[in-house]
Amino acid sequence: MQIAITTTTVSAHPHPKPLVSLLRPSPPHRVRIHPFSHRLSTTASAMASSVLPPPQQQQLTITRPDDWHLHLRDGEVLAAVLPHSARHFQRSIVMPNLKPPVTTTARALEYREEILRALPPGSSFTPLMTLYLTDTTSPEEIKIARKSGVVFAVKLYPAGATTNSQDGVTDILGKCLPVLEEMVRQGMPLLVHGEVTDPHVDTFDREKVFIERILAPLVQKLPQLKIVMEHITTMDAVNFVESCKEGHVAATVTPQHLLLNRNALFQGGLQPHNYCLPVLKRETHRQAIVSAVTSGSRQYFLGTDSAPHDKRMKECSCGCAGIYSAPVALSLYAKVFEQAGALDKLEAFTSFNGPDFYGLPRNNSKIVLRRSGWKVPATYAYGAGVIVPMSSGNTLEWLPSDQPEE
């Protein structure tokens, strides 16, 4: 493993000032990197809590992560939220559910240029583009996408399943089979929002039913198709992923589905900023996902599903689904792995499993996470309003550096 657990002598410093603006974020507390004193072996994971240094003297050095599921939006929101992802992640799979959606390679190239123009000066962040699958997507478009060198996957949104999914697929095997067969030939992964939209199916069962009705038949029909089940939320999804062949079916996991159960939607009143799709599930499902992710399995990797919405669009009579986690995601993932006594497995989840599945090289640079409390801002400002982040106003214990270490 590449993870390094480093001990240092830490003097008392004030906490970094809260970030008050997305466009002008205050720099996080700078961390001086000292040579690490020992490495934590993979065989020691079960005893991680007993061999790690004291919490106040701990920092982790890991290969720079990638985010394999990210919403950047466009316009003012893109310019505002992009620096948060570019600060901590080297690459991101960028979701195509804009208005109108990114359904062609030509539009994906345009969107990519918009992202590159919005990057902070000197950033090495690389957007990996996707196409929005529709009932009318053609096999020829898949060939064009592969030849472009910038489109890396195709996203399946069942029509009506989530934000801006009204143009999504109505019958995956009935209308999209020629496209899926071409994706197999081109080695192009299918990224799946795994929920049925049948109004007769209970909201909390829609992932399970999707697996039974759609995903299992799809895998049986096209066993060579590479599939990522995005933002899994249930024990059923864990069982399905692990029943499939490694390298052909994998899953991304969000910080919210690792840390929150459905009680978080209602504690102290309705909590719109904890509302996302797929919706949070029972505690038994959360525990199953944590166990799977921290086990060291190569079939799971980091995908924040960070989805910014204006505060007014969350706190209204019909609030939008989505949690904005980009500024806090690495801190929260580290929290999950630490609580599970599996910090030695964090790097594979954040930095290795994703590129390995996509057939891309692992990153060369490093990032440092220091155990140093910092308070999450209540909101981040952008041109027309504010966005409320996950863990708004809370103090997190892991502080990632904002510059890569070579």
Can you characterise this structure?
It is globular and about 50 Å long. Strand 4 (91-94), helix 3 (105-118) and strand 5 (126-132) form a beta-alpha-beta unit. The relative contact order is 0.17. The protein has two domains: 2-49, no CATH class; 60-363, Metal-dependent hydrolases (TIM Barrel), CATH 3.20.20.140. It contains 13 helices and 14 strands. It has 406 residues and is α/β, with parallel strands linked by helices. The model is unreliable at 7-53 (pLDDT under 50). The strands form three sheets. The chain has an eight-stranded parallel beta sheet. Strands 1-2-11-14 form a four-stranded antiparallel beta sheet.
Fold topology:
Layout (H helix, E strand, L loop, with lengths): L3 E4 L40 H4 L6 E6 L3 E4 L4 H14 L2 E4 L10 H14 L7 E7 L6 H10 L2 E6 L15 H4 L1 H10 L3 E3 L13 H16 L5 E3 L5 H9 L5 E5 L1 H5 L23 H11 L6 E3 L8 H4 L14 H11 L6 H13 L7 E10 L4 E3 L2 E3 L7 E6 L6
Parallel strand pairs: 3-4, 4-5, 5-6, 6-7, 7-8, 8-9, 9-10
Antiparallel strand pairs: 1-2, 2-11, 11-14, 12-13
